[in-house]
Amino acid sequence: MRLKKALALACLAFLAGWSHAQNTAAPRECAANAPFLSADALRKTGLESPLFKRYCYTDKSGSYALLLGEKQDRPFPEELLSSAIHAALYKVDSDNMLTRQWAIRDFAGEEAVGVNFRTKLFELTDIDGDGLVDPVLVYRFFEPEGDGHVNVDHFSGRAKIIAFHQGRKASIHAVTGQLDGQRRTTGNSGYFALPKALQRHLVKKMAAMYSARQFGFDNSYGFAPQKEPAGR
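Below the sequence we write its predicted structure tokens.
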């Protein structure tokens, strides 16, 4: 009995440590009183959509702020969605001015009733050990379900994973469905130019999202994205 109790306590301690390690890897929100996020500084950034999240990090190249915007103009009982989203990374200069490094924007389009960022799946870590953070962003497009509702089933809609390595963009576009033939995952040329360590990391991320029922990726090729069709 004592042995079982000791083993149980050891397992709990291990899980607690693992959980803490996972939490420490989560993106860190910027301090609310950060001078580079003052109303005047933000006006100068030209961020197009209403700002709803601010993440900060520092690596060997300097300090950065990732600003996220969502229009949030399409509310549903299940999800608050937007017709458009926008993200931009800024380097924080010594005088607390922001210099834009890159930006992305996307739109719900005609096939979806809305889109939103999945910020709990974001990563702001150095994945390949070069001393530079490799931002990973995830957002999802939703389909209607009728009577003013949106389909939140993980085998419905589309998802995109955007990763940046040394300032270069890589994207993965995933379409899901209830049938195997409806699901596909493709990567752009930027994805296939990533170091193998980053490619493997993103494949593991998709497998983990699939297991957690966060999105129904195509697993025909072990979750590895296929090349986009020519001319897309």
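The longest helix spans residues 2-24.
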